[in-house]
Every structure is written in structure tokens, then in C-alpha cells.
Amino acid sequence: MSDETSSQHQVCIAGTGSYLPERVLTNADLEKIVETSDEWIFSRTGIRERRIAAEGEFTSHMASKAGAKALEQAGITADQVELIIVATITPDTLTPATACYVQQQLGAFGAVAFDISAACSGFLYAMKLAKRLISDGAFSNALIIGAEKLSTFINWEDRNTCVLFGDGAGAAVLRRAAPEEGSILATEMGTDGRLCHLIQIPGGGSALPITPENIGQHLASLTMMGKEVFKHAVNRMKESAEKVIERAGLKPEDIALVVPHQANLRIIDAIAERLSVPPERVFVNLQKYGNTSAAAVAIALDEANRSGAIKRGEHVVMVVFGAGLTWAAAAVRW
Ligand code: ACO
Questions:
Q1: What separation in Å is there between the alpha carbon of 280 and the centre of ligand 1?
Q2: Which domains does the chain have, with CATH numbers?
Q3: Which residues of 133-165 are buried (b: 16+ CB within 10 A; e: fewer)?
């Protein structure tokens, strides 16, 4: 689905924030849990370690901490926030939405708050939605957050998945932009529900409730057909990045930084090569955090922003891919 026809207001990213839980789980730690090795994990994925939320630390807590940092950077107080969208597949509760807990924790009681579920693509889905709602005049600002506590939904006996994922949250504040400020130039998103089965948390919903009989079967854990996902990820991310680059009127050499979903370094390298962007202009932090699903691109954007890897006036392209299958991209003048 493409975008941007009748925009009345330009929309900028006014602030970013992120939060990672303190506990570090290294590849060496995982060697003690399942039959794996640092060599296998690092050579197949690029991941060295990931963060794991503390007991009693929920998705909403991480989301609120990331959100508070983004608000602070944007110079917006909680009571001024008009819209909160949390992208997550690991909500605190099935209902109410995690965004409602975030509204409560931040004291952002004037905000409309809801969640979206688009797996690793959720943060850019939220960005497109919020951008459109602001540009159409429905809201003047939005706090968008990608937050996940995947450690709850991992089968720690399954080496195919448990080495890949981590917990964390990233956030951005979007608001109407003044003419001299940067703006979100183009966004793109897509879905292919025919491939639902490739990445799933099959149990715990209405289709397959957890019962005393099936409780030992890890049905509320993430399953993934990694090789299939890999192929689709590369193709879809390349296509959607190309679309936003073209629609923004850019060429590969105009892009200061690509901030991709942080799932696998081999996927990231393949996309950079196909987009003709050299590796030094691609932001990578998955070695520290693993795949944090909806949080990953948001955390990466915040780290790129705060480390000075993106400067005002430069062009950034974000591109993501996840369960659904879903994919999305955004081109931004910072
Ligand atoms: N340690 C050691 N061996 C392992 C491990 C492990 N942790 N995990 C799997 N293996 C074994 C398997 O059992 C298999 O052995 P077999 O061939 O004897 O059956 C073999 O390693 C599989 O190896 P490869 O086929 O070489 O694995 P591959 O190169 O495909 O890498 C990976 C696997 C990392 C999962 C990769 O396919 C991948 O990253 N896929 C994409 C994932 C992704 O992008 N997800 C994004 C969305 S996630 C979301 O939306 C929540």
C-alpha cells in the first residue's frame, strides 16, 4: 500500500528514545541451555548477546521508559501527547491494549491510545498511521512505540528460535513540522496473509487456547520456518525500500543511513548490496540485542540518532519485515 497524496501538513520525527533491560544473555549462556555454540549463532545471525526483561518488568514498562525519553528529546510533556500507538506482539494483556498501560504510566491522559499487531513491521506501520493522522489534521502529535517482551513467548528448549530473540523498546515522537524542519517523505507497507504459517505463536488465542491437557506443548511460543522467512525478507525489504527511495525522489547515493530491521546480519548485508548502499551506511546493533521484533528498528533509530550517525538534513531509510508476513519502509529527511 502506498501513500502521500493529500497531505496537508508535513510531519517530522521530533525525538527518539529506547530502553533495554539490564540483564544480558550471551551466546555462551545459551550454550548452557540448548545444544548450540557462539560460533553457530554468530556466523548464522551476527548476534552475540540479547537483553532479557526482569521478572515483573512488562512490555508496557519498557515502552513507557522508551517513550519518556522520546518525549523529553522532543520537548513535549506527557499531558500534551494526543496519540499513543504501541506496536507489539507481546502485549501485557490481550486486553486492554498495552498502549493504555503506557498512557497510565506516563500520565498522558489526554491521549488516544491503542496497539497494533504487525510483528517486526509494527513500528513502521505505526509511523505511517500516525503520520497520516497528523498530516490530515486529526492529531498534532503522536508517540509511537515498538516494545516487546519476547522472552515470555520463547520456547527455551527450541534452539531454532531461542537464540534469535530479545526484549526491549524503542519510541519516536511525531509532530507537525515547520517548513525548515525535516519530514517523513514517503512510507510503504504490505502484507501477505498466505504466509501466516511461516512465523506464528500458535496457541493462547481463541483458535488454540492453552488448557491443562496441552500446557506442556509450548503452544504459546514463537515458531518460525527460518529459511523460507529469510528468502521473503530479502525480497520484500528490497522492494519496499526501493519504493520509498523512488517516491522520495532519492537515489542510493543520497541516503546517509539505512536503518533496517535487526533480525539477521546476512539479511541486512544482502539488502544493502541489492540497494547499492555500502555497509558503512547501514546501521547494525543486532549483535547486542538480537531480534526485538517491533522494537528493533525503533531502538536502532534511537541509537543512530543519539550517536550522531544521522545529522539534520540527511536522508534516512528504514525498512522492516516480520510475521504476517508483513513489511514496511519509510524515507525521512532528518
Ligand atoms: N545452534 C546450532 N544448530 C542449530 C541452531 C542453533 N541455535 N538452530 C538450528 N540449528 C541447526 C538446525 O537444527 C539445522 O540442522 P539440520 O540441518 O541438521 O536440520 C541447521 O542448524 C539449520 O541451519 P541452516 O539451514 O544453515 O540455518 P540458516 O542458515 O537458515 O539460519 C536462521 C537459520 C538464522 C533462523 C535464518 O534462517 C534466519 O535468520 N531466518 C530469518 C529470520 C527472520 O528474519 N525473522 C524475522 C521475522 S521474526 C518476527 O516477525 C517475530
A1: 26
A2: 11-181 (3.40.47.10), 184-333 (3.40.47.10)
A3: bbbeeebbbbbbbbbbbbbebbbeeebebbbbb
